[in-house]
Amino acid sequence: MKFKIAKKDFLDALSLSSRAISSTTPLPSLSGIKISVTDNSLVLVSSDSNISIRTAINNNDSAALIIEETGEIVLNARFLLEIVRKIDSDFIEVETIDGTLIKISGGNSEFKVNGMEADEYPLINFESRDNNPFKLDTTLFNQIIDETAFACSDKETRPVLTGVNFKAKGNKLYANATDSYRLASKTIDIDQDLDFNITIPSKYLSEIYHAIANEEQVTIAIDTQKISFIFGNSIIDTRLLDDDFPDTSRLIPNSYSQKLTVSSKEMINAIDRTLFIKSDGKNTVKMNIDPEKIELTATNQSMVSSFETIKVISYEGEPLEISCSGKYLQDAIKAIGSDEITINFSGELKPMVVKKEGDDSLIQIISPVRTYR
Amino acid sequence: MKFKIAKKDFLDALSLSSRAISSTTPLPSLSGIKISVTDNSLVLVSSDSNISIRTAINNNDSAALIIEETGEIVLNARFLLEIVRKIDSDFIEVETIDGTLIKISGGNSEFKVNGMEADEYPLINFESRDNNPFKLDTTLFNQIIDETAFACSDKETRPVLTGVNFKAKGNKLYANATDSYRLASKTIDIDQDLDFNITIPSKYLSEIYHAIANEEQVTIAIDTQKISFIFGNSIIDTRLLDDDFPDTSRLIPNSYSQKLTVSSKEMINAIDRTLFIKSDGKNTVKMNIDPEKIELTATNQSMVSSFETIKVISYEGEPLEISCSGKYLQDAIKAIGSDEITINFSGELKPMVVKKEGDDSLIQIISPVRTYR
What we know:
elongated, 8-stranded antiparallel sheet, Proliferating Cell Nuclear Antigen, 6 helices, DNA Polymerase III, Chain A, domain 2, homodimer, alpha+beta
């Protein structure tokens, strides 16, 4: 194996590959990246067995890759990335010296790394049985992740809640995420008639988010147990969560008894000042709302308390006292991203609905906590 | 107790006070800052019992402090700093509500914190018995810290080595730091005839460094067990290390058999590329030096190795093979801070001397490690 490659292209490909590398893998070969050099391309494969990435650089793409000898090797991802990042040269040469001993050089630097035989690397099948892949704008896809993924559960007690559920039906795409105390629910119209119901682990969505950020569109293929994201010369396969995602539509109240509109920025800043006040590691804010103002309070066990007064833009209904996680309320308002925020209440123990007035495409639901007096 | 203060001034004073707060203190009151309000000043005292800080804001300094009622209280440093930082207002009001319950308010925010009685706070004596304090430029003092403190030991096995030794004698000030594998040694001429020999713990030097960074001069008073840094309305007292600092002058070789001059930047960058190659957690670089070039190599247990070639500016003596910590060599070259660096060798097992050619005011000594073949 022998090739010369532009440092920038190699580094980009290795950075992408590294997104599938786990620091704790039981299989030694999975701490490596499989490099396969054929007559006309360099292919990198990496995997933690839940997310797998294949990316190729073709030598006809540009003069950035010159292949002198084909071959395969598995090289430790962390060392490889560190070496290529550090070499002070526009071009990098990679060459088999003897068996699995590889030389990586550029400028005045020369590194030797002992790799593993490529046949020790597990076979990863990047084929998909989906005959009907579809394209999606990456801006839209990443916006959906921004608006929902934060609401996923970070506990493994109910694995399916650690993912974002994507459901397509009759030209609509629904994305839902919940940890059972809050729900982020996004609905968008799509110009394709798709039919699927899948849940993608949020930690892999975060890798996909960054991997596709510079692309315009991504092609998505859905198989029984995995989803493939295809862009440029790359493909990312991610395992899906098996269990059925709960039916979240029944969690969304369809009437309300109180309706509050307030400045998003003032709410976010007021909550921000109280976030350090925690009891049992949790920050809870109590809101006393009337047509004039919200009085927002938080208290902890060390007898520290805060009291914030926030002007109300409009309020309908009886005065209300309600408590909830300050962090959850802040997350919800940030995800909506509008200047003003509307919160619909149905009483002090019923879920509150946070949204932009007149826009039901994105709603954030938060369960209140009981107010202790 | 009741006062109103400009947020900026209060925050600056609290940030300074917080430098003496330890997150792990056995004495509950030491997690707090003692606030004493007299007719004409606000005084903050903080301490972790090794470093103590007293800072005052006088109400005749400016209109930035308005005292309405005198009094004393101890308030949790972390909460207090968080609250004052977060309050969105140019002025902050602090007021005793009832006993030890204090209200801190500004803008639309109001916080209540339960403090501790000031008489629960230990008595800290900021007086010094030094009748002959002297002034030092902070730029010079901080430069000495930059050039030496990194060479202190981070292990408590020999406590005196965790500090920088300052010795003054006959218009000379000597600063030395060593972890017994390397030595940073600075000598400066001073226009005062001082006589002392003290060792200041490096972790407190780092706090002093930042605390005095914006001052021009600092007044220093030395007592038997402590040193005081006096600037503006503030005083920082730091415990000294008891044990005798070893005599480092005999570690400095006064002759050499090889002398190398090389570009600092090229050496720093070449070492930088090898730093990730560690055996037993340590990065060791081997240098093969001849009149033309340095061949710098590093190897780890995972069979990763690097090979760097660095052009020599000048070299006197026989070719030499010598190994040392890459990090130590890099630290030494960075501390010297000149474009070119000179290294004097006395053989492969003798300490090497890193310095700027023709300047003996700062020398860095590094013990080599045995080269394994």
